């Protein structure tokens, strides 16, 4: 019995060391990710941006509206900035926000051109900003990436 106990204790100790090393490695990977400054995982950013590009390309206004954190400030094609408070408002302003030149810019933007700051992740010149928005205040690890600002074409 004592041999088994020692063997089980040794196995448990080895397992704990392995798990500790793994957890430390995962933490290091997180710190080295491209978008760590914004507090979001690279994989989630890539999935979000791909979804955004596809929705804009197919002119799916409802899908794009679902990717926005409201209220959001957006720049219209006229250059006027407006606060959009709901999905309904967003869909109403959609064509004024996502005009042909802006859609083309989004289509041409590559994942490796995105960059991050503590405020969020941005397209090359800050045309669109998105960030992790918490689903629940009790669970800080659960977030969805949402658009937080739409600055339009920046020349």
Protein described:
The N and C termini lie far apart (76 Å). The chain has 155 residues and is α+β, with helices and mostly antiparallel strands. The chain has five helices and six strands, in the order αααββααββββ. α2 (42-57) packs antiparallel against α5 (100-108).
> What global shape is seen?
globular
Order of helices and strands: HHHEEHHEEEE
Biggest sheet, in brief?
Answer: 6 strands, mixed
Q: Assembly type of the shown chains?
A: single chain
Strand content: 25-35%
Instruction: Give the low-confidence spans.
Output: 10-28
Summarize the SSE layout with pairings.
Elements: H1 2-32, H2 42-57, H3 61-65, E1 68-75, E2 81-84, H4 87-97, H5 100-108, E3 115-117, E4 120-122, E5 128-136, E6 139-150
Parallel strand pairs: 1-6
Antiparallel strand pairs: 1-2, 3-4, 4-5, 5-6
Helix pairs in contact: 2-5
In short:
The protein has helices at residues 2-32, 42-57, 61-65, 87-97, 100-108; strands spanning 68-75, 81-84, 115-117, 120-122, 128-136, 139-150.
List keywords for this structure.
155 residues, alpha+beta, 6-stranded mixed β-sheet, 5 helices, 6 strands, 46% helix, globular
